[in-house]
Design brief:
68% of the residues lie in helices and 11% in strands. It is an alpha/beta fold. Among the domains are: 5-72; 125-304. A 6-stranded mixed β-sheet has the order 3-4-5-6-8-7. Strands 1-2 form a two-stranded antiparallel ribbon. α4 (223-235) links the parallel β5 and β6 (239-244). α1 packs antiparallel against α7.
Length: 374
Amino acid sequence: MSEQKIKCPKCGELISIDDVLTHQIEEKVSREFEAKQKVREVELTAKIIKQAKTEAEKEQSAKTAFLEEQLKSKETKLAEATKNEIELRKEKSKLAEEKQAFELEKLRQLEEAKKVIAEEAAKKAAEEQQYVIAQLKKQLTDATKAKDELARKLEQGSQQTQGEVLELELEEILRTEFPGDEITPVPKGMSGADIVQKVIDRSGRECGQIVWESKKTKAWSEGWIQKLKDDQRAIKAHLAVIVSITLPEGVKGCVCRDGVWICDIKFAPALAAALRMNLEAVTREKAMSVGKNEKMEVLYSYLTGVEFKQRVEAIIEAFTCMQDGLKKEKNAYEKIWAEREKQIQKVIKNTVGMYGDLNGLVTLPQIKMLELGE
């Protein structure tokens, strides 16, 4: 078939009808394809947007749930921290109350202990002891007067040496305190102790002898003890005492060392009274136990032994030991309270820090105790 052509009305050129139809069909098909392509692109875009929106909503929902969970956890922790702080403050208040109650109880116990000791002392005090106490009071007054008199004599120009003055003062004290005893000073130049005291009870019985040596030097000498023991054996005295201005190192008041009593001048009257009381007790026991040599040996061993020394010292040491024990207990509990207080402060500090950390991340309910006041 021959190709059909038509003339273009515009330019007059001959154009193949097939080319025109083909071009028109191509344009139509191209327009339809482009239209369908745009529809598909719009649908695909919408689908993608929808999927992206769905994914975004899911992600946002997950984030919201996560944040809500975190907030809930933080609120729970904050509530626990607040509860812990309240408990700690209660514990601290309880400890303070317990501390006050403990101190009050210790004071009550101390008072009870003093009362029990006083009652026991009153029960154990015999008639002779009561007499000695009354006598000691009188003797103390007389001794004070005697000391004043001696001081007055010294001020008036006494030429006696310091050692002789102490010896005279001791002799005067013994004479004043125990007027019923025989107080015999050893003459100067003769060997032996300075004073021999022969103890005589109220019934006139001789109960024994006490030898006294006075020392007024700047330094203590251990050799004095053995010398006085030798003097004691020479006259067969029951007890020996050194009255010294300077006592051995670490000794305060009085002490028994190697069977010899050592004391300061101001303790001499009390020590003499205690020694006399025991000599009188031995004499009474001896009178009631004539012929019982074994029992007398026990009594003599007691008088010269450690037990007698400990009983004399126990009166002085009793209250000192009680005070030391109470002080140690008080120091121990104060240490425990200080440690607990530091632990409580540490917990409170960490609780406040945790509250501040959480408050920096999320807005927490206000806790007045953890906030700065106006």
